[in-house]
Each structure stands twice: as structure tokens, then as C-alpha cells.
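Async update (no meeting this week)

Hi team, since we skipped the sync, here's where things stand on the single-chain job. The sequence we agreed to prioritize is pasted below, unchanged from the tracker. I ran it this morning and attached the output directly underneath so nobody has to dig for it. Comments welcome in thread, and please keep replies under the output.
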Amino acid sequence: MSKTEDALIKEKELLSSVANKGTGAKLKTYSKLCGPGWLQSAITLGGGSLVAALGVGVIGGVNFMWVQPLAMILGVVMLSAIAYVTLSTGERPFRSINKHISPFLGWAWLGATIVANLVWVLPQFNLAFGAITTNLAPDVFPDTIGSKLLISAIILAIATTIIWSYGAGTKGVARFELLLKILVGLVVISFIGVVIVLTFAENSPLNWANVFSGLMPDLGALFRPAETFMPYIEQLDPANRDKWTADIIGRQRDNIIAAFGTTVGINMTFLLPYSMLRRKWGKEHRGLAIFDLSTGLFIPFVIATGCLVIAAASQFHNNPKNNKFENSTSLVNQLTEEKNPKLSPEDKEKLEAIYIAMPSKEKANATLEMMTAKRNQFELANALKPFTGNLFSQYVFGIGVLAMAVSTIVILMLINGFAVCEMLGVPDGGTPHRVGCLIVGGIGFFGPLAWGELGPWLAIPVSVFGMTLLPIAYITFLLMMNSKSLLGDKRPEGSSLLRWNILMIIATIVATLGAGWASHGKIGWWGPGLILTFGIIALLTRQKTTPNTN
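Output:
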């Protein structure tokens, strides 16, 4: 018997020994064995979650603290479902879907995962370049093609080294997961540090009572502007008042949907079952899998994104002193007719003078333009500097952003390796897996060069494609959980099946409504039409199989 098999037998015996024990004994054992959940953290804590958290904080303040935790709860439900099915059957999900549900759904799931990997790796390399050149070493690397390629080469070398360790047997998997835990830990600790320092800073605008009250879901934000905008909206004439009310509600909806969309992506649903099978987990690990997702995915994600929302809200939401006059179109138009001009310090002083001299209605309009302007992580770091100092605002914050980018790059490469192996019908690991990993890494290498030009063209179709297929993936998991042909006597029954169905149906409805709403906003009725078309094709290609008695 090999060391790997011996270790697996001992692991299963350990899980069996605590199966009927109390919560404390289970938690103590589970905490020693968790791993795949941290891989999920490493991919979801990337550029998408960073931008979403900043957007939520800017437009909704701490009143929107509930958005990403609620999205992740629904995501964990669906990930727990695919984990349950995978660990109960021991089959690779792509094959299970093709055999028991619909080959169309299986191939759509695989294809969407690969496309998402190839596109979303570009902004991660771009994010890493920005963190190094703006936060960590602004005077070392100039903004040149050579610097961009050099930093991309370094990031790719680090990511490839980490990926290569994953293929080195059980010890390699454990070492790989440890490295990912360290990267996720850096993200979380960095942003916690920023918020702690901000909390105790002199004249800090942070109010913890408002933060905790913001954890209570407020679906009314989909239909009315945040209260902080109302004093300015009320100063406008009726036509502008209606325009700004509709505009702010639209932005709030967009940011809420974006936060939901970046919490659990289509490629995350592909990663989890394969990472568990790679660790040779089975039905004995089903309880551990749910614990792993709760501790390795939910807790780090909620803490990291929560800290980002808090920091962004404290600096930009209803905080006029951090408004930039150049973010007001109406102000800039009074200075120049040029679109997106590069303004000198003298020009900015003129904008301030124009703003001060404006009548109240025009000033309220300009203030709303500045308050709702999009912000990025570098603006946030600079805004935090007076409260947290240069160390936390630039270096610690920059380390968190860099760790976000690197961990996501690593996981996107890993997922693509699994996907390529499934596409070719070969076992994961070995040359096909590494080639699949390097395809993503090689494309991402050009991220700092390509994303600025290609991003606007790629982001919309790929995000629509991914959002359209996410509810289809959720519907697939719902069908798998209820499939007697797939699960046989391992299918939940009675109240257990009812609980699974209630939770999964809620998550699926939310994902479907969000995907339909978001895709309609980008490409009109083609978006909901695509979801409906995918659903019809899936029903027409649904497999009819006999119950699985294995």
C-alpha cells in the first residue's frame, strides 16, 4: 500500500470517528483537513471582487454591506450541492452531466469555463502590474512596454512554479494549497489592517454602528436611491430630479448585480469538484466539504470584501472632501469642450472656483456627478493616506491587491488545466494539464498591454456569456441533486431533499433574475433570450437513463 493510500484510509477513519460526535470534535478534525475551499477563495478574491466591492462602497456606502455576504451564501449552497453529488458518486461532473442530464449543458459548462479563464486572466496580470508600479514600487518600474513584459514574466514564473507543485503527488497538492492559503491570508490581513488603522485614526469618518446595520439586507435599494443622495437630489429642478433618481437607482442595481456576478463565477463551479476528486475525497468527506466551503471560502471572502466596502464607503460615499472636480462633466464642460482632457493643477483650481460660484441647483448636479464617479483601488489607496499613513495606504494595501491578482492567476491556470483534460477525455495531471495551465498563463502574460485596448470589447460579451450560463449551471446542479439515475440510493430523501431544493431553487431564481437583468442591460432582450434558448435546448437534449444502483 502506498503512502498516499495509507494517508487516505487514516483520513477516512478519522472522519468516521467524529461522524456521531458533537460539533466541537467535528470542527477540530475538519479544520485539519480542509483545502479545496481555499482554492475557491483564491479565485473569487480577484480583480472582479475588488472592483465590485469598490463600486458597492462608492454608490451605496456601508448600507450595502449585505450584498456580497448574501451572494456568497447562495453561492456556497450551489457549490455544496455539486460537492455532494461529486463526492456521492465519485464521478467527474462533466461526464455525469453528459450521461445523466444533458450533453449540451455539459459542453456549454466546459466551454464557458474555458472562455472565462482565457479572458479574465488578462485583467489579473494588469492588476498585478498596477499594484507593483503604483503602490509598491512607483519609482522603480516606469510605465513602458518593457516594464510591463518584465513584471508579467515575473508573475507568470511565480504562478507556474506554484502550479507545478500541484502535480507533485499528494504532498504537492498539500504544498499548493498551503501556498494558496498564504496568498489568501495576505489579502485578508492586508485589508483588515487598513480598516483597523482607519478605525483608530484621528477624525476617521468610519462609523461601526452603521457598518453593522448595513449587514441587514435592504432590497429597497433596487428601487430607490440611498438616503445620502437625497439632500442633493431635492435641490434639483423636477426634470433633473427624476433623471438623477433613475440614474442612481440604475447604478445601485448595476453594482449589486455586479457584486453577485463576481462572487461565484462559472469557472468556480468547475474547479471545486475536480479539486476534491484530486484529493481523492469520497462520500465520507461530504460534511467536511461544506465546512471547508464555509471556512475556506465564505469567511475570507466576506472579511476581505467587507473591509474594501468599508474603506471605499468611508472615503467616497457622501464624503465631499474626496470628490474630484474633474469627475464632474458639467464642471469640465465649462472649462473646455475637449473630451477626457488632461487637466493641469491650474485647471483644477479653476474648476474649484467654478464649483464654488455655481448656483445651488447646478452645484447639486455637479456634486452628484462627483459622488457617483467610478473609483479604482489606487484612488482609494491615496484617499486613505491621511488616515492610515503611507505604509498602510500604499504598501500594505498594495500587497493585498498583488496577492489577489497572483492567487487568481494561479487558480485560473489550474481550472483551465482541468477543463482541457476533460475536453480531451484524459485524466487530469501530466502534460495535457500543464499545457492547459500554460495556455491561460501565456495569454495573461500580455494583460498589461492588451487589457486597456481589448477590455471594453471582451468584458461585455464574456460577462454576458458567463452570466447567461451561470443560472444554467445552477439548474444543472439542481437536476443532478434530484436525479435518481445519477445518485441512486445516495440521493437525499424526505426533509433533507426538501431543504436542498428550497435553498437551491432560491439560489437559482436569484441567479436567473440577476443574469437576465444584467444581460438585458448590456445587450437588450438578447440576454434573457439567450438564457431561455439555453434552457430550451437543455430540455430537448435531456438524457433519459435508468436509476444508478451503484
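Quick observations from my side:
The mean pLDDT is 85.
The CA atoms of residues 287 and 505 lie 21 Å apart.
Reply here if anything looks off.
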